Structures are given as structure tokens and as C-alpha cells.
Amino acid sequence: MDSKTYNKDLRKACVEAVFDEFAEHGDAIMPAVGEEWDGIDASRPLGHIVGYIDLDVTGIVDLIIDTINKEL
Q1: Which of 33, 44, 52, 69 has the greatest number of C-beta atoms within 10 Å?
Q2: What phi, psi does 30 have (nearest 5°)?
Q3: Would you say 36 and 26 are in contact if contact means Cβ atoms under 8 Å apart?
């Protein structure tokens, strides 16, 4: 596998991990106010999560590092 294909696959795996974290109501991406999950919209095809959210940046980074390690 060439490096371009590998990077594309790795990027896809990391994006999927972030969206899965959101879908599972994990700790890295949460509503900024209470439990208002309905106020957050996630669009996998567009690659966007929008709304009034609280991001745990270290949690997102850990998620991405764990995903990279699994893919290696």
C-alpha cells in the first residue's frame, strides 16, 4: 500500500472514531449545556459536528492517537 492510500485510510479511521465517540455520547464531545444532545447535529458525509458543544481536546487527541495505534 502506498503512503497516499495509507494516509487516506488512517484519516478515514480517525474521522470515524470521532463520529463514533459522538454517537456513543462519549466524554470527548458533549453538549455545552445539560444533556441537550438534540441540539447537536452530526453529518458524517460532510465531516461536521455542529451545535453548542463542549470539546475535551485532550480526549479527542487521545482518541485519535489510540486509533492510529490500532491502525499501525
Answers
A1: 44
A2: -135, 160
A3: no
Q: What residue type is assigned to position 43 of the chain? A: S
Q: What percent of the chain clears pLDDT 90, i.e. is strictly above it?
A: 88
> What's the Cα-to-Cα distance from 4 to each of 11, 20, 66, rounded to whole Å?
11, 24, 21
54: left (phi over 0), alpha (psi -120 to 50) or beta: beta
Inter-residue contact 13 to 67 (CB < 8 Å): yes
Residue at 23: amino acid letter: A
Flag whether the pTM goes above 0.70. yes
User: Residue 2 and residue 30: Cα distance in Å, rounded?
Assistant: 36
